[in-house]
């Protein structure tokens, strides 16, 4: 079992559709570790879905729950940690990420739309999903790159292939 004892072995960041959860699961399996997903943790803690939180309380309320959950996870989770796509836009979260092994899962609109299909489960992409995703990624790309220890290109690759590359990066061995 590979664990970071008091910290995650890897923190996965990237936009919706970059595969953070599926790659995170594949990586966790490979490392015999757990996957902790901050979106899932917020939903479990509140007993509500993320779209419901957005609709009923607004995005700022979600961001506050997310910020607290990320802060908890960065000191509490010991396996693979997947952050919601917008978590890194919070300056306090970026400070907390310093010193962690952060992997930016890079993806273009073609693969992202194939992966997520732009259904209603992502409130930020509910209106004009493709154009919104492109605009969001333009704004976020420098932030993802800025927090990343490693950038991994996910285009046209399976979660297992991507997970193997990340595992190689983590151990310093061949991908
Ligand atoms: C968001 C991404 C979602 C979720 C929320 C907001 C974002 O997570 O946290 O809907 O701002 O990009 P995924 O990246 O897992 O879709």
What does this protein look like?
54% of the residues lie in helices and 11% in strands. The protein has helices at residues 20-31, 38-46, 50-57, 59-76, 91-97, 109-116, 129-147, 159-171, and strands at 10-13, 35-37, 80-82, 102-106, 150-153. Strands 2-3-1-4-5 form a 5-stranded parallel sheet, with helices on both faces. The longest helix is centred in the last third of the chain and has 19 residues, at 129-147. The two termini are 19 Å apart. The structure holds shikimate-3-phosphate. Residues 16, 20, 39, 50, 84-86, 122-124 line the site of shikimate-3-phosphate.
Instruction: Summarize the main sheet.
Output: 5 strands, parallel
Question: What class would the helix/strand composition place it in?
Answer: alpha/beta
Distance, first to last CA = 19 Å
Q: Superfamily at the CATH H level?
A: P-loop containing nucleotide triphosphate hydrolases
Q: Main attributes?
A:
alpha/beta; 54% helix; Rossmann fold; five-stranded parallel β-sheet; 175 residues
